Amino acid sequence: MAEDKYNRKNPAVKRILQEVKEMQSNPSDDFMSLPLEENIFEWQFAIRGPRDSEFEGGIYHGRIQLPAEYPFKPPSFMLLTPNGRFETQTKICLSISNHHPEHWQPSWSVRTALVALIAFMPTSPNGALGSLDYPKEERQALAIKARDSAPKFGSPERQKLIDEIHDYMLSKAQPVPQSNENSEVHADHKEIQQIPQDNVEDTAETLPLPAEENEIVEEPNETPPDPNVAQTSQQIPDMPTTSQQVLHKPEARVPKPADDRLFTLAAFGLTIAIVVLLLKKFLKANGHGAVFMDES
Question: Is 125 marked active-site?
């Protein structure tokens, strides 16, 4: 790195050289970033997709531009690897970028910004400038593709740095996890491929023959007929249905509600008659029978 051409007393140069030294002495498995040889204000970086997300296992390259007033003004970020979350070769809008200088803190560094960028990856874009909202499956496919090779961008010197960073990140990267849905799809696909041809031929043999031209034919279902279903449908005319069996059975005599009411009234009337007879007998025995007979 041509450090001699820079004024080491300049606050920005002093801060950048300090961060370069710290990045080299304390590397991370989640990211790597270094400045160009010819311009320490131009950085290349690569981050690893956050764990437990659709970006896991992916290696995403990007570009950082530090302003002359760094660290008192924020840097700008640009992704170079297709990822489904941020547009490529477009300055993205984040609270740590030059789109929001009011949020930037001079104590933050390139390392701090890269950690924040990784955290922003699985969040909702909410229509922010330079953001994308691809489906989860497409992001997973891009994560796998991002491991194959580094993006092509810039001069040969820049490309050499990009390739070196990619090799370092690839040596630290974990395999891309396979989702449960994809595993189930592959398993189902294998089962379909392993279906014996004999079963297919048997199914084809049970298909009904075409009807005559003048006959009225019921429109077939879109699904092919099952052999078991075809055999069952042929046996239906010989077997009485459940409703037919019920109709031919002798119905048991069930008392109707009206009969119950008549029986109750008859019992009630008989009870009254017995009470009246007992009352007459009682009155007659006590000498009141004549009066009772005259009033009746």
Answer: no
